[in-house]
C-alpha cells in the first residue's frame, strides 16, 4: 500500500487550502501547480474556477476573466457542466461591471444557449435587458425583460424584470423630457 498522499493529492490539498486562505502570490502559484498536476479534467476545471475566484477576490479582473476563458476552453461540447456555466456567467458579470456591453452580451447569450441549468438563466436573460437598457435600446430591453417573465415566471428575476420593463417603457416615453 501507499505510505501517504500522492504528490498530485498533496498539491490539490495545498491549492484547496490556498483558495480558502489569503496567501497572495504564493497561493496563486500553488493553485497553478495543482492545476498543472491535476489527474482529471474535472479536477483541473474545479481548480481553474477556484483560481479565477482568487484573482477576482484580489481585484485582478483581467487574470480572473482570462482564467474563466481558459476553463471554458476545456469544457466538453454539449456538457451541462456547472463550473463551465458559472465561468460563462462570471465572464459576463465582470464585463457588465466594466461596461463592456458587447462581451457581457456575448457571454450571457452563450450561457442561455449552451447551458440548460435554470439557476443562472433568469439572471442572464435579465442582464441582457439591463445591457440593452444601458445602451438605450429600449425595444430590445423590453423584449428581454418580457422573456424573463415568460420563460422564468417562478424566478425572483421575473418580478424584477416586470419593474425594469415598466421603468424602461417610461424612460422611452419620456426620453426627450428627461434630457432637457
**Overall 3D shape:** elongated
| Fraction of residues in H or I helices | over 70%
Percent of residues in β-strands: under 5%
Largest sheet data = none
In round numbers, the mean pLDDT is 86
Tally the helices: what do you get?
Answer: 10
Number of strands: 0
Q: Roughly how many Å is the radius of gyration?
A: 20 Å
Structural class: mainly alpha
Low-confidence sequence ranges: none
Order of helices and strands: HHHHHHHHHH
Descriptive key words:
elongated, 180 residues, 10 helices, mainly alpha, single chain
Which SSEs are present, and which pair or pack?
Blueprint: H1 7-20, H2 24-37, H3 41-57, H4 61-73, H5 82-97, H6 101-114, H7 121-134, H8 138-151, H9 156-173, H10 175-178
What does this molecule look like?
It is a single chain. By secondary structure, the protein is mainly alpha-helical. It is built from ten helices and no strands. The longest helix is centred in the last third of the chain and has 18 residues, at 156-173. The model has no long low-confidence stretch (mean pLDDT 86).
